[in-house]
Every structure is written in structure tokens, then in C-alpha cells.
Amino acid sequence: MKDIGSIHLKEYEADIDHSEPVMIAESPGRLHLLGEHGEPGAALLLTTGINRYVRVAVSHRKDSSLRFFAADLGERKRTTLINLKYKREDRWANFIKMAIHGFAEWGYPIKGLNCTLTGTIPQQVGLASSSAIEMASALALRALLAPDMSDQDLLNLLSDASFSFFGRNEHPLDHLIALRSQQNHFLVVDELTMTVRPIPLPFKDYKILITDSRVPRFSVESELKQRNRDIRKGLELLSHKREGATFRDYVTEDLMESMGALPEEIRRRSLHVVKELRRINEAEEALKKGDLTGFAKAVYHSHESLRDLLEVSCPEIDWLIKRTTEIPGVLCSRMTGQGFGGCTYSLIKEDAVEEYNRRLEDYERIFGFKPIVHEVTESGPAMVVHAEPLQSITE
What we know:
Helix content is 40%, strand content 24%.
């Protein structure tokens, strides 16, 4: 990753008081392993932070301007606190602006700020790059403005800011994952209770490969909104609108018994959610026991469910998953993220990587898309990595 401190000093040399601290924070990307298409507001996830990061540097300015520099893109944005609002054309800067907005809304005194961004998280493939920008920005701002703020308050601030800045009313799950991520662990994250259970990993001989299918995606948001509507409708019909009901109250047999009362499409979506909850519990127990076969079974069955019941996969992704079952040394593979293209992840031994890459040549020849493979490992948590003045680059 680029030396963000030197970049920050060079970019804002005329506007930095070198006796003041420059706060630099980093936040990891995130890989969902199971559960990301669960019940809205009550998701249960098996997930992990990954060793691809965003770094954000923040320091005070001598004036009241807010300046933003994306070092990897060579792009600059600017605004003021009074004009701090979402602008579509500001793209990446909106995520830093959201964090600033949160601190301002909570009453912290903000004048001028210099902000620099750099990172290694692949963009727009479902690895939480935007949430990582928000978390790194929030951690840097907390170090600068509110060093005594608790992690829980920081999460609450980001949740409030997400609603008031973007209009999103949801739990900050990706922010929580970033804060609780651990090396050599997967995480079970419960949206109902906002709790995290770390699980030590029993497979040190396997690599995690994320494969970007490069399939163009269109109208994904509208499709996903429809899936969420179907899931909510299924719960409403099952529970007879009982307040506080969730899909955790039901098992597969309940859906089978109610088959006649549920429209077929809604039944399939609901069945995916109920079965996925069970698979996550089975995967957690398998990991704790070191049962790699049991874990792999849950992962492959999850992909089949995403393909057949939720219908968010596509032929290219299914081809990638199918090929892994033919390669000795691949433990498991599954679609990850929003679907309709995007990425797969695979747990694979070193001696199987060559054959895996050879199959990707077949993929490119058949489908016409050149996939990109990222090798990742589990990451530690988001953190502040520098909280002191930086030496002037002119010295």
C-alpha cells in the first residue's frame, strides 16, 4: 500500500500545522462466507475480514474547507461543513463525508479538515470497500476529535450518519465486522443482537482465493429489493403478522406444511433463509470440531440454494463452482456478495492452484470474460495506525 503519510503531507503541505497530529486509520475488506442473503434486519452471517485494506489520513486545516484526495485515482474533491451532503458525482468522497457528517451531527466541533484515501480492496465486487472507507474515516476522526468514544458509540454514530446522510436505515454490520475481525478466525455475526462469535480456523493448509467473474451486472438493486420483499412477505404469511417474529422461529418442516398457503416463489425464498440459518449453525459446529467435510458440505449446499431457491446466481458463477468440485485439493467454493455475477470464494490447497488457474483459462474461452483472482487471508481489526505529528517532507 502507498505511504499515505508522505502523500498526505505532500498534498496539503501549505495547509498543515506540523505540530498537530495526522491521524491515519485502516480498515479491512470483508468476505461473506454464508448468510448474506438472509432475513432483512435479522441476518445471521459467517464472515471474515480480509487482508485488503483502506487507509484514511485526516488532519486539521488552517481554514474551514473540507478537502479530499484519493491518491490511487489522483482525484480531488472539496466542500464545506455547511454544504456537507451526498453528491453522486463525489463517489468515493461521500463515504468520508458521511463519517464527518456523523461527528458533526453528534456535536463534535469540526472546522477545516484534510483527508487522504488509499487502498487495496477490489472495488464494486462485494468486498465492502465503501464500508471500509467509512470505518477508517470514523476511526481517524475519533482519534482526532473524540479519543474517549467507545466502539459501541462509534457504531451508533455511523448508523445514525448512514440514515441521515444516505437515507439507509440499517445496522452497520460491515462496520461491526471490521472492528471485530481476527486473524485465523471466521466470525459468526448476529444482526438481531449485534454480537460476534469468533471461530478459530482448523485448516491452515488452505488458501482463500476470491475469483472475480467479471460478469457485467445490470439491475441488481431492483432484483435484490424484490428478493427482500419476497422474504418479508414469506415471514408475514408464516407468522400471520405476529410482532417480533423472525425466520429463526421456523424450521424446514414448517414451510413444507405451509406449502399450500405460500405462493411458490415466496416459498422458495423463505426456504432458502430457513435452510441457510441451519447451514450456518452446522458450519460453525463443523469448524469447531475440525470437520472439514461437514464445513464444505454446508458451503456447497448454500450455493445450490442461492442458485435454485433464491435465484441470484448466473451460468458463469455456477460454472466456476462446478469446476471446483472436479479439482482435488479444493475444499469448497461458493458465490459471495450480491450475486448475478460478482465473485466466488474457494478454499484450496497450494498444489491445486495451478489446476484451478488452468480451468479459468477454459472459463475465459467459453464465456469471454477474463477472471481476476485475489489470494487473501483473514485480517485483524480496523485500527488507528498513526496518531502523531508527521515530520515535514521539507526537512
